[in-house]
């Protein structure tokens, strides 16, 4: 509760006898002073929680005088440029402390302990009653007195006035400061419509540098927390404005998706808008810069957020973009990873079109350092039509592919399919080819796989492979061929003839 400057000392003395109160302790918002929009708790010793606590317990704050400017206190502590401090407001709900004061608010401690009792105000309730956190005992709990409700509403009005004083760069700097960000985050968590409206309006303004303030906040380690809590507080109309501002400039949108904090906030917007027509603002931008975003590690997860949370009709345009750019994505490191995530979620006719496009380009993709992983994924789906496409198109290329790291994995996967006989016959058609693959760093794993699958199935091709390889065991006894040699002989050495 506000007091006149002439009675401030008496107020402190009386509070000391009745225990700590919100007004005297000056916790949370009241401990933060403004110097060019930044919080400062170091330079002004008289504003520290420790000194305020001493004053509440009968100590004195030397040299402090209180005046009123626009109904807000202005404390002068012996230095020329005094600073504005916002009034105290519900420290228990802002910082999560766990000790109750005289007026029913948490005052001491750092975190609300499990099972501890804390009171949360219902600011819009006509009766102004309080509620008790889940898990707390209801015995002995009483609502706030009418006097407390009046005081708390007065504090709320003062905080609203304080936020009005945060203009332009002062507001930006306050958000970018650790303690300032924490304060605004706490105030937004009160879900007061007027506080939300004021902060939303400031976020949508331009800074003195001509940059939208929300961009500076979304890309900052402290500022993004303010925007995150703001998004949770917005009504539908305000959320529409924020969504429009984020998406109206494609280059800005791309910058945000590439940044860790910015992408996290966009993903949050996606989750909130998943049942709203406003989601088209986001998906349209993602489609417009699909290849660029999908080939960025951070940005690709924004698209994945849509695929995992939106309805099929909302993702239709994104899947069309994936089909259009699938070959370009497949040969890019980040793009191939993102494309595999698309394969995991796409359904229906679009799934058929995507897998058909990839399998039809199996020869090209199988020999690419990144594309081979996409073809491995297609084979692992065990869809006969597309597996047949891959195995058939690779005939005549198995030797070349087997000598490559990624390609050898593809051939091994093909040998696990029902088309393995045609692949093995392709190797048996030329003994020199068979030996070259068997001695290769990567190819020897392909021949080992061929021997294992034919032996397990009892195929006559197993004996054909042995008849071609045994005359050349002395050659296979050294180098990478030794793996094939050991598989055939059980590790026994063979004398050269």
From TrEMBL:
Name of this protein: Pumilio homolog 12-like
SMART domains the UniProt entry points to: Pumilio (SM00025)
Keyword Repeat tagged: yes
One Gene Ontology term from the biological process aspect of the record: regulation of translation
Domain PUM-HD: 139-492
Region feature (Disordered): 1-22
Compositionally skewed regions (Low complexity) per UniProt: 1-21
Protein's organism: Populus euphratica (Euphrates poplar)
Pumilio repeat ranges per the UniProt record: 285-320, 426-467
Entry superkingdom: Eukaryota
Gene3D superfamilies in the cross-refs: Leucine-rich Repeat Variant
């Amino acid at each position: 509760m506000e007091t006149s400057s002439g009675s401030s000392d008496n107020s402190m003395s009386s509070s000391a006898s009745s225990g700590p109160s919100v007004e005297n302790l000056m916790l949370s918002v009241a401990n933060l002073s403004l110097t060019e929009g930044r919080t400062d708790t170091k330079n002004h010793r008289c504003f520290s929680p420790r000194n305020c606590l001493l004053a509440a317990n009968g100590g004195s704050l030397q040299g402090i005088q209180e005046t009123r400017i626009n109904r807000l206190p202005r404390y002068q502590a012996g230095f020329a440029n005094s600073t504005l401090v916002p009034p105290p407001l519900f420290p228990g709900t802002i910082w999560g402390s766990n000790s109750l004061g005289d007026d029913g608010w948490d005052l001491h401690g750092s975190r609300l302990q499990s099972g501890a009792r804390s009171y949360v105000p219902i600011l819009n309730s006509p009766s102004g009653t309080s509620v008790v956190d889940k898990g707390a005992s209801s015995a002995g709990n009483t609502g706030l007195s009418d006097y407390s409700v009046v005081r708390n509403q007065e504090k709320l009005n003062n905080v609203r006035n304080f936020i009005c004083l945060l203009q332009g760069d002062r507001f930006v700097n306050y958000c970018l400061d650790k303690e300032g960000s924490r304060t605004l985050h706490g105030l937004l968590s009160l879900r007061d419509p007027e506080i939300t409206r004021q902060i939303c309006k400031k976020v949508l303004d331009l800074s003195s540098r001509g940059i939208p303030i929300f961009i500076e906040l979304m890309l900052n380690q402290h500022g993004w927390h303010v925007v995150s809590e703001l998004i949770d507080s917005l009504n539908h109309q305000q959320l529409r404005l924020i969504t429009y501002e984020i998406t109206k400039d494609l280059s800005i949108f791309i910058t945000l998706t590439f940044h860790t904090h910015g992408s996290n906030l966009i993903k949050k917007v996606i989750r909130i808008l998943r049942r709203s027509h406003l989601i088209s603002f986001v998906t349209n931008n993602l489609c417009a810069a699909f290849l660029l975003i999908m080939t960025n590690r951070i940005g690709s997860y924004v698209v994945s957020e849509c695929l995992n949370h939106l309805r099929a009709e909302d993702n239709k345009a994104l899947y069309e973009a994936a089909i259009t750019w699938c070959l370009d994505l497949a040969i890019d490191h980040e793009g191939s990873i993102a494309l595999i995530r698309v394969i995991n979620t796409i359904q229906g006719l679009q799934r058929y079109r995507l897998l058909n496009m990839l399998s039809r380009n199996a020869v090209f993709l199988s020999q690419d350092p990144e594309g081979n992983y996409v073809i491995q994924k297609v084979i692992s789906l065990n869809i006969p039509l597309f597996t047949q496409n891959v195995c058939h198109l690779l005939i005549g290329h198995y030797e070349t592919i087997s000598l490559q790291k990624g390609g050898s994995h593809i051939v091994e996967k093909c040998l696990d399919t029902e088309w393995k006989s045609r692949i093995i016959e392709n190797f048996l058609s030329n003994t020199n080819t068979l030996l070259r693959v068997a001695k290769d760093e990567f190819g020897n794993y392909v021949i080992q796989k061929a021997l294992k699958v034919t032996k397990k199935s009892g195929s006559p091709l197993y004996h054909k492979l042995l008849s071609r390889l045994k005359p050349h065991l002395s050659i296979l006894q050294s180098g990478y061929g030794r793996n094939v040699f050991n598989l055939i002989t059980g590790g026994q050495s063979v004398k050269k003839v």
